Amino acid sequence: MSADGAAVASARVDALPRVAAARRGRTFDWGTVVVHALLILCVAVIAFPLYYAFVISTQTVPEVLGRPPLLRPSGHMLENYAAAWQRSNMARLLLNSAVVAIASALGKIAISMLSAFAIVYFNFRGKSVAFWMIFVTLMLPVEVRIMSTYEVIGSIGWLNSYAGLTIPLMASATATFLFRQFYMTVPNELVEAAQLDGVGPLRFLWAFLLPLSWANIAALFVVLFIFGWNQYLWPLMITNTETMRVVVIGLQDLIPRTGTHVPEWNVMMAAAMMALLPPVAVILFMQRWFVKGLIESEK
Amino acid sequence: MKRAVFPNRLLPYLLVLPQIAVTGVFFFWPALESVRLSVFRTSPFGDKSFFVGLENFRKLLTSSEYYSSIVNSFLFAFGVTAIGLGAGLLVAALATQKIRGLAAYRTAVLWPYGIAPPIAGIIFLFIFHPSYGALPYWLSFVTSYEFNWLLKGWVAMALVIVATAWTHVGYNIAFFLAGLLAIPASVLEAASVDGAGAIRRFRSIIFPLLSPITFYLLVVNLIFSFFGSFGVIHAVTQGGPGRATEIMVFKVYNDGLIGLNLGSSAAQSVLLMLVVIALTAIQFRFVEKRVTYS
Amino acid sequence: MKRWACAVAVVAAALVVGPTESLAKTEISFWHAMGGQLGDTVNELVKQFNHSQAEYEVKALNKGTYPEVLTGAIAAYRQKNPPHIVQMFDVGTQTMLLSGAIHPIFQLMKEQEIAINWGDFIKPVTGYYSKDGNLYSMPFNSSSPILYYNKDAFKKAGLPDKPPATWKEVGEFSKKIIAAGGAKCGFTTSWPSWTMLENTFPWHDQPFATNQNGYTGLDTKLLINGEFGVKHIGQLAAWQKEGVYSYGGRMGQPDPKFINGDCAMLIQSSAVIGGFKKSLKFEWATGQLPHWGAPYKKQNTIVGGGTLWVMKGHKGADDKGVAQFMRFIAEPHQQMWWSVTTGYVPVTQTAIKNLEAGYHFKKNPEQWTALSQLSAKPTPNSLGHRLGNFVQIREAIEGELENVFAGKKTAKEGLDAAVAKGNDILKEFAAASAQ
After folding, report:
1. Across the interface, do B241 and C395 touch by the CB < 8 Å criterion?
2. Strand pairing of C263-269 and C185-189?
3. Rounded distance, CA C222 to CA C310, Å?
């Protein structure tokens, strides 16, 4: 599906309530009830793990370990969340995660817009080389080359810094590809007209393309924000001080993996809830952009 | 279509520079470094290092563990993809009824995508835990079989597959719904007027129309689970029991960072990179074709 | 959008610079692997040191598991920005010793003219972490595997209130307890390679590897697939099948089986005593690591846990602060506080004597158990293990143990495979470290 197709698709998503409304007034339909029941079942199965994690985060350790499992919240939510908050320096962790997620998303959007602009609107020597250099990075996760990337960051002196946490995350081609696709759908007449009026390339980008791209930028931002927030191995490697940790790593302090102590699953789950809330909230509240972002950044 | 272009000579280089710089420094430089490391044997602290040619590769390609990690990668990738696509199609099929509240259902299944894989792993680790998880407890009433992922490789594999698929299922559903909603209502109506039953309608009309999306999702899911699935395994099984969940990406990490065998880890990186480059080329061709088509 | 980027950059810059007050003190970085309650205890110890003087500020940081700490330290060292102090577990000793990246503790103290009575440290500890008679790292958290048992379960089965002394008794007691409904399984084991092989071999005076367990050379080979190993692991596998033994995973993952009463006994590090005191809801006590009895000699177990290594590559001026922190934690008061709070064994004679004088061990017999296993004079088989890439070897061993307990391989097949893999790893290490 191209970006056009996706745009049509999201338009149809918006039209959905109308379709449903048109069907109102039909006679009672058992088939629909079954479908709803099945869908609700799907939702329940998908929601259960999170619900259970939440329930655990409100219990005491004996309640957590007790049998049969207690499936309803207990009354110790506040103390568990307070313990998780204090023990893992949560405020700082959340702030760091936010900085990493936002900075890496904005940075990636900025450099991708520029390079996609160059690739679509210019002919220059070495264009296809640049193009391939960028797109070969499409799929290679940082885990695969983690050790050598670490050494590179070390030689630049970016260990334990926001630069080290964010800039390597920008070395991905998905956003560039999205902008390229989008620019290619912009009618040729627009750029021809602009050129006739003597509009230069930078002004064309700023005054014509950018206003057209806001929806894409917002969508991309949501997706990249989540990507940045959920980074794991990279921040684990390159942060050395508590003040630079991000929240997904901060959970490490609460996981008793060295094994010589009693697991406090309740506190761990409380911390997990706090760590997963921001990206999940972003998805829920910016759902329209998120779905658009997902569908359009299809590679 | 020939695009109108700007005539500037220097500007395009300046525009691509930031991205090329980032890519060069954080992708090509480390990649070359990996290639270099892969032909050396290096002591853990990196103070001693000597050239061994293709020895690291030879060792890998003659070790049964490497092949089992390849098999595990495929098992894992196919498992995640099958569950993700299956659930996605199921919801899509149900949603062809064009019932009310479809958007609400989509919201209700989409949010796990925001959960970081290690966190999803921790949650599932708890639910599946042989001594205090809820699931083994309930299963113990149904069967005396012990679903102990600490000992039984296939249970561990199932656990990491389910946890990974969980975070990803909403992604598939979002795509299927988008595809579904792009099907003109008239097509569906025409089909129901013909008196086609729901199942037949889905099989003969909806599914063929969804097949480009299905194919796309197939590719993306496979790639995602093949390469981007480190967090869950790291948080839950650490590759065990008995290497049953050691997939290729995890082995690169484990041999390099935990085992401190930099040469072997780098050699594995190089092999993986070759696979990735090949896949990118294939996928890119496919994407290009679709773009031209539309 | 640019404005946004600027705002972010400004915030980021502000965060990087951070509060200025800490700049006055010299910072000493200390990476450790203590999570959860133990992490809290480490932080408390560090806080005490920071308050005790005004010149230095130790910054403790949990860098994950021990292997992750090691990896992080190595990576940082290669970037010429290592932490001052690294906590490393027992099996990382050989890697650290041969790294060329460390500043031996005895040397540091000599340079800083801080007198420490090295003879005061107990033998199993100095034996494990010394080279040519000199201590290379500062003993910190030392422990040994012991047996924990659930008194309520024992009572229910009509058993006397004493721990099983032999493996034979472990089997008998377990069966009685299961029959009486006292528990679902007899026992489980944490850190399987560490408790069931690395400690069980020296405990029976059996060699774990050639070259005196790796002390006298690099061309070392594992010896765990001999008659003793096959007998011991074979018995565990048979018990696993019967439900007497319940394998519970690696590291401390099996603990909950004991905590929630599923298993009546647990073999685990003495380090969990502190945690268990807080959380166990039933009566419990400890006993020595079970022994097979005659014809095997009862020797000693080895110390596990970690020591603190000082890394090279810092300004000379920082050494003084590092040395002061090391002296601080070696003082009897801190030794005693740390050991009483956690369950790690005190590692100096003075601390042990002081604790004895205060009837500490009479009141807390569980804290004596591990020490009692460490009292014999070590033989070449029981001094410790000095194997390169031991982390990877342990992983290979545990993977094969899992195959054995899952019934996929016999004990002999599994241990043979573990030895083959382990020897490969040792060969690789020797090749990389030679020259």
Report:
1. no
2. parallel
3. 30
Tokens of A176: 């560039």
Q: How far is B272 from chain C (nearest CA, A)?
A: 22
In which residue are the tokens 């806080």 written?
C47
* Nearest residue, CB atoms, B131 vs list C101, C248, C425: C248
Residue of A nearest to C13 (CA): A162
Q: Which chains touch C (3 or more CB pairs under 8 A)?
A: A, B
Bridge partners (DSSP) listed for residue C27: C57
- Which of B43, B151, B257 shows the shortest C-beta gap to C402? B151
Domain boundaries, position C49: 24-143+303-363
CA distance B222 to B227: 9
- The distance of Cα B125 from the centroid of its chain, to the nearest Å, equals 20
The enclosing domain of B143 has a CATH number of 1.10.3720.10
| Cβ pair B131:C399 closer than 8 A | no
Structure tokens at B40: 């050396």
Measured CA to CA in angstroms, residue B56 lies from B87, B271, C56 at distances of 41, 11, 45
Are both C343 and C291 inside the same structural domain?
no
Q: How far apart are CA B227 and CA B210, in angstroms?
A: 26
Digit-by-digit pLDDT tens for chain B (294 residues) are 456 788 888 899 999 999 999 888 888 888 888 899 899 888 877 777 889 899 899 989 998 889 999 999 999 999 999 998 988 888 777 776 666 777 788 788 888 888 888 888 888 888 888 777 888 888 888 877 777 788 888 889 999 999 888 888 888 887 887 777 777 777 767 766 666 666 777 777 777 877 778 887 887 788 778 876 778 888 788 887 888 889 888 888 888 877 778 888 899 989 988 887 777 677 667 655 554 333
Q: Distance between CA A191 and CA A181 in Å, rounded? A: 16
Shortest distance between the Cα of A229 and any Cα of chain C, in A, equals 15
Q: How many domains does chain C have?
A: 2
Q: Residue B198 domain-assigned?
A: yes
Residue of chain B whose alpha carbon sits nearest to that of A69: B134
Provide the CA A257 distance to its chain's centre, in angstroms. 27
Interhelix angle for B207-227 vs B153-181, to 10°? 140
Residue B285 near chain A (CB below 8 Å): no
CB contact C428 to B (< 8 Å): yes
User: Which one, of C77, A118, C148, lies nearest residue B12 by Cα?
Assistant: A118
**In chain A, where are the structural domains located?**
78-296
Per the CB < 8 Å rule, is C71 touching B130?
A: no
Query: Which residue in chain C has the smallest CA separation from A146?
Result: C75
Q: What is this structure's pTM?
A: 0.82
Q: How far is B121 from chain C, CA to nearest CA, in Å?
A: 15
CA atoms within 13 A on the CB side of B206: 28
Question: Helix A265-285 to helix A210-229 angle, to the nearest 10 degrees?
Answer: 170
The verdict on C256 touching A (C-beta cutoff 8 Å) is: yes
Per the CB < 8 A criterion, the answer to whether A224 and A104 are in contact is yes
Q: Is the domain of C68 the same as that of C103? A: yes
Q: Cα–chain-centroid distance for residue A154?
A: 27
Residues 6+ apart with CB under 8 A from C124: C300, C301, C302, C303, C374, C378, C383, C384
Helix (H, G, I), strand (E, B) or coil at A146: helix
Identify whether the C-beta of residue C371 lies closer than 8 Å to the C-beta of residue C352: yes
C27: number of Cβ within 10 Å? 15
Among candidates C58, C47, C60, C55, which has minimal Cα distance to C25? C55
CA triple C204-C208-C209, angle to 5 deg: 150
Compute the distance between CA of residue A295 and CA of residue A7 in angstroms, rounded to an integer.
9
Q: Does domain A78-296 have CATH number 1.10.3720.10?
A: yes
- Residue C20 touches chain A, beta carbons under 8 Å: no
> Would B251 be classed as within a structural domain?
no
What is the spatial distance between Cα C148 and Cα C366, in angstroms, rounded to a whole number? 9
d(CA B34, CA B28): 10
